[in-house]
Specification:
259 residues, alpha+beta, Immunoglobulin-like, C8orf32 fold, 2 domains, 7-stranded antiparallel beta sheet, 37% strand
Amino acid sequence: MNSHLTIDVTQSAQLALIIAVAEENPATEDLQILLDDAPADYREVTTDHGTRIHVVEVDPGTLSINYSATVTGEAPPAPVTERDLLTYLRPSRYCESDTLGPTAFAQFWGLTGKDLLEAVSSWVGAQLRYVPGSSLPTDGATRTLLARQGVCRDFAHLVVALLRAVNVPARLVAVYAPGLYPMDFHAVAEAYVEGAWHIVDATTLAPRQSLVRIATGRDAADTAFLSVYKGRANLVDFTVGAVVDTLPLDDVRNLVQLR
């Protein structure tokens, strides 16, 4: 797994990066953050889900970030807590499950477990077209359904909102995705059914078995790979890479845990 970001900092800024694999992944990794080719100070903040946020405070200049990781073996299954099961039933900024309740109940009433996840994934995949650049950063699940198009985060937001609307805890996960084309950071949904968290990816653009967790949250507001909190900074360029020894076959009808 690897990523590179070039950022033009035009006013002293505080930035938060979420590009490293989550804490539970067994990985060998390297992170370099340079301002005008000189090492820049940063600190790491870890969330309850093992999301690692690297906070950088820099003066104006060209910021270059290089990250690489080799993941060996599998991470343990995502833990299940009562707090999470309650949190991920609530509507959130990009997943308006209260607004989409009538749609969810009309389409998926009576379905549970694996059958529900398969139905939601297939329905969202049939309703939306994957169109790069078609959505705005402020678009939520409701607007995505009306537009009938979007990118991976839009597909994931709609899946999450529909599942929450039928009382299934669901959340967004940012991942590295071997097999994805065009290669990028990827977003999928994670739903709690049959006693565990399982991945739902309505885009079907990459096999779920090879995904590597970066960040977990209510929606994209919790998982963005770059946030600027103070000052001014513009993303000039970024590249992402992810490969796996053997690319597995995937079947939307199967339950898959993110490992």
